[in-house]
Every structure is written in structure tokens, then in C-alpha cells.
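B., you asked whether I could sanity-check this one before it goes into the benchmark set. Here's the sequence:
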Amino acid sequence: MSVRELVVLGTASQVPTRHRNHNGYLLRWDGEGLLFDPGEGTQRQMLRAGVAAHDLNRICVTHFHGDHCLGLAGVIQRVNLDKVPHPVTAHYPRSGQRFFDRLRYATAYRETVGVTEAPVDTDGPLAVTNTYTLEARRLSHPVESYGYRLVEPDGRRMLPDLLAAHGVKGPDVGRIQREGAIGGVSLEDVSEVRRGQRFAFVMDTRMCDGVHALADGCDMLVIESTFLDDDRELAIEHGHLTAGQAAGVARDAGVRHLVLTHFSQRYSDPEEFERQARAAGFEGQLTVAHDLLRVPVPKRR
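And here's what the prediction gave me:
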């Protein structure tokens, strides 16, 4: 059975707190696992969340500030220690190659797994699989930063009334799906487009075109909301978003499930992030993330 869910490993910005680990997010997408921004302590959080090194197929780093990448060394070494039987691909800004190299080879260990380096230096597709296309978009932060987006290919939804009207039944339903037509009846005659799911991961950034492009039409948007709206000028200065800004993006993009994360240690009331997101007019499903939370991707429309 396919599983599509977000496993939240850490939600703190800049420094961990007693209740929030540095960043870390695993997206389970059918049989694959994509690990986003493994900050310090990610390996231990994986253990607590029941995530194994064998679950990882891709590692996606948005930028090379420590709270988003210091866990890379431990994660890559764990992948090798556990002798993960499949290749693991790492995506990260090409401008941070020297940081990736230092983290990958921070200490001595035996390499048993081929970690494929696939650095990002432009907007557009990074990988195409049978179940998704992985894309990147440039963001606005003091260091080069990219957000990531998964887009599932559109499929077809069979319509029983039209199948019956055209006399297509039994094994012929499977045939028309495979072959595209049967006996003068086309697949389009008896089905409709089933829109593929969309997921986006947006971390440290000011408002910019990339944020809107990543969020557009998403079923799930995981987005930083480091600051509350009263500190909007501080957010702009440091290259971040407020809860209201993040929710406004989700509202305008038609996001179905908004996940707010990456919270400054200055705030003690998580519910205020939800209040400000609702005040910004977002009416969809809303989650204020906490460590070790599991959030299912919404079912297809």
C-alpha cells in the first residue's frame, strides 16, 4: 500500500530548544523517502520517529546555514554504516559545494553506498521518476537558497456512467486504460483527468517569485514562518517569512494543507502562529508543526 506522509523531525530555527530540534523533514512518497534539511540531531530524531537509513532515497538541502545541514555528516555516515542497498542522491546549492564536501567527509568512515551528488544551480526539474518530478526554485535569503517541489503526473479517473453508456465493462475497462481506445471508444470518452498531487518545501526566504511558484496549487505546502507578523521588518532583514505572509501565500496559491514550521525561539505560544495564519485568510487545513509529528498528504482531489 502506498504511503504519502510528512514526518517532522525538527522545527526550530537557528538554535534548538528544549522542545524543538534543529530542522529535519522526511517525505514518504510511495516507496521513496526524501529527507529535507537535516539539521544537527537529525539522526537521533530519525530513531525516535521510526525512520531508518534504508528509508532514504534523496537528501534535499535548501541552503548551507547550520540549522539546515549540520546533520548531513551523521546521516551520510549512517547510510554507509547500514549499507543501504540503493543509491542515495543529494541535492543542494552548487555554490555550497565546499560545505557539502566538508560535511560528507567530516570524519573517517568506510564508504559502502554510492551517494550521488546532484547540485542545484538553476530553476527547473532535477529528477523525473515514475511517480513524481522533483523541481527547484531559487529563493531570497542572505545565502543562496532553493525550495523544492514534487509534482505527480496527471492520471485518468474512470467514470462508471460513461463506461456503461459506451458499453465498456469487465476486462475491457483494463484494456482501454492500457491501450487508450477499444472498439472506437477512446479513453477520453469514458474518463476524466485525475490531477496529480503536488508537494512543496519552502524554507528560509523573504517573499519572492520562487515562493509563489513553489506553492502554486499544492496539496501540501511546508513553509517556514520564523516570525510573527509584529516582527515583519525583522523577518525581511534576516531573510524570513512571518506566519501571516506564509498563510497569505498558501491562500493565494490554493494550498489544501498548510504546514507552518521553523519557529524562532523568541516565541512561546505556538497557537499564535495559527491565529495569525487564519487572520491572513487561509481557510484550508492548517498544521503548526511540532517535532515527531506525522502529517498525511491530502488524498487526491
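One thing to flag: The chain has nine helices and 18 strands. Otherwise nothing jumped out at me.
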